[in-house]
Amino acid sequence: MRFYEYESKRLFGKYGIPLPTGSKVARTPAEAGAIATEIAGPVVLKSQVLTGGRMKAGGVLFAETAAEAARAAEKILALTINGHKPRGVLVEARAPIAQEYYLGVTWDGVNRLPVMIFSDMGGIDVEEVAEKHPEHIAKRNFSTLFPFSDFMAKELIASIGISGSDLNRLTQIAATLARVFRDHGLTLAEINPLVRLHDGRFLCLDGHVDMEDDARDTQKGLLRELGIDPAEKRQARPPSQFEIDGAAVDAVDHRGVAGNVVEFDGDLGLVIGAGGGSLTLFDAIRKHGGRPANYCEIGGNPSVTKACALTKLILAKRGVKKIAVMMNVVSNTRVDIVARGVIKGVVESGFDPAEKIAIFRIPGSWETEGFKILRHYGVEYCDRSVSMYEAAGRAVAKMK
Amino acid sequence: MSILITRDTTFIIQGITGREAVNMTRECLDYGSKIVGGVTPGRAGRDIYGVPVYDTVAAIAKEKSVDGSVIAVPPAFTRDAVYEALECGIKILVIVTERIPRYEVAQMVELARLRGARIIGPNCLGVLSPGEAKMGGLGGRAEDARKAFTKGPIGVMSRSGGMTTEMCNTLTAAGLGQSTAVSIGGDAVIGSTYADLMPLYEADPETMAIVIYCEPGGRMEAELARYVVERKSRLPIVAFMAGRFMDEMPGMRFGHAGTIVEGKADTTAEKIARLEAAGISIAERIEDIPALVRKRLGI
Question: Any residues with CB less than 8 A from the CB of B107 and at least 6 apart, and which?
Answer without folding.
Answer: A144, A145, B79
